[in-house]
Amino acid sequence: MAVTEAQNPLLGENTCGSLLKKLQQIWDEVGESDEQRDQMLLQLEQECLDVYKRKVMQAAKSRAELLQALSDANVELSSLLSALGEKNFAGIPENTAGTIKEQLAAIEPILEQLWQQKEERIKEFSDVQSQIQKICGEIAGNLSLIDALPEVDESDLSLKKLNEYQSELQQLQKEKSERLHKVLEFVSTVHDLCAVLGLDFFSTITEVHPSLNDSTGVQSKSISNETLARLVKTVLTLKEDKKQRLHKLQELSSQLIDLWNLMDTHPEERKLFDHVTCYISASVDDVTVTGALALDLIEQAEVEVDRLDQLKASRMKEIAFKKQTELEEIFARAHIEVDTEASRAKIMALIDSGNIEPTELLADMDNQIENAKEEALSRKDILDKVEKWMSACEEESWLEDYNRDENRYNASRGAHLNLKRAEKARILVNKIPALVDTLVAKTRAWEEDHGMSFTYDGDQKKYNELQNTEQEPVFGSRPSSARPVSAKKLASPRTNGGTNGTPNRRLSINAHQNGSKSTLKEGKKENVRAAAPVNYVTMSKEDAASHVSGIEPILASP
């Protein structure tokens, strides 16, 4: 019962003094000796000392750990601030006052905030670098760069570095946009060229790169250096093909038109090839119609040219005589005399003999026509002067008849018109000497330049007949010294029946080339022989045919 009571106090608050008192009471009851009591107290004291030591050591260790944690926190803080490029960060305590735990408690939220900021910054760097790496891979055409994850340098996560990456990304995005624009332009050009050339666009563009067909999105199209280079090469190749095909088509068009003109092809038949001939003078950029330069269209034109060539060979005589007629018309307009029957006979003989290719004969005749045109052009100025001289002589002849008319001043119908004509005729007649001088000078200059005599429908007058023209009439016979100098009636060279069958004209000139005016007298009419221009004289057909330099006798023989 006593023991129970003694334990009850243990249920209350225990202290070292109360426990020691209880221990002494127990010893008293037990009857422990003083020696035993001292030994047990010494033991108890040693045990208490050990407990204190352990507690002190634990406390010291805890303090050391806290100090290390604080040091690590400060190091980590410095590292984070350095990596983030933060020189000044709000919230960092300015002094280190306070206990270790207080200092740790103050720095921990800052570290947490900086860690969160670091993670966000790493994500930003990763996103930017991923985009940079992807675009670089697209430009280089390296798929491994596109799929690989970027390596972020966590030692430098500053905003300055991030801005550098962002600037690089913007430049790359701009370059990508420009490249994509170029690619789309090239693809569009290839599409248009394929349409004009009649080629399969899909197969052509996928040969360059599979991503360039219409089924893929714009952003998925290849923009690599290799793709751009192949697109440039493809466009250049297609443009060269277009240029060559257009040149070929224009050559065929020219041949078709020449053959049609030679054989007088009906307009309805020509319309069947309007889609070919419409580009005869077009530039490469003008041809944009789908299929305009397709190979089957060119082959169709080639077949038609071959067909017309065969048809031309069967109609060779008809075509040759058509060209001969053109040549004779040029000669006739230029008042050049040729033996048309002999020329046509030689053409017939050549065709029948088969010794010359039809194309060679036609080419030779085309050459003759060009030479004849050049010859006619060189004679044009002189022929114009001859026409003016003939017209003036006709007016002079009319004026003579008018002056001999005794009733010319009567108030008859039309008398005033004849009076006005007479006034104009007198002015024109006074210009005849100067006109003749000009004609003679031009004719001589032409003959000196060409080294041959100038002929007019086969007639010619030798220079030795012109030596004394100052005191003789330029045209017509020398006037008798017993007669006054007067205007004469002369027959135009065409009155003798020129090649062209032109109507007869009455021609005359003044008696002198030195500018003296002819005196018109009524009632006095002098018969003189028919005269030709100063350099006209009757000549043989053989001489007349020799005037055209460089013209083959096949087509221009006398």
TrEMBL record:
Lineage: superkingdom: Eukaryota
Basic and acidic residues compositional bias, start-end: 519-528
Signal peptide interval: none
Coiled coil: 155-182
Annotated keywords: Coiled coil, Cytoplasm, Cytoskeleton, Microtubule
Compartments, as annotated in UniProt: Cytoplasm, Cytoskeleton
A GO cellular component entry from the record: spindle
Residue ranges, compositional bias (Polar residues): 493-518
GO molecular function, one term: microtubule binding
Region (Disordered): 469-529
GO BP field: cytokinesis by cell plate formation; microtubule cytoskeleton organization
Protein family: Belongs to the MAP65/ASE1 family.
Name used for this protein in its record: Putative microtubule-associated protein, MAP65/Ase1/PRC1
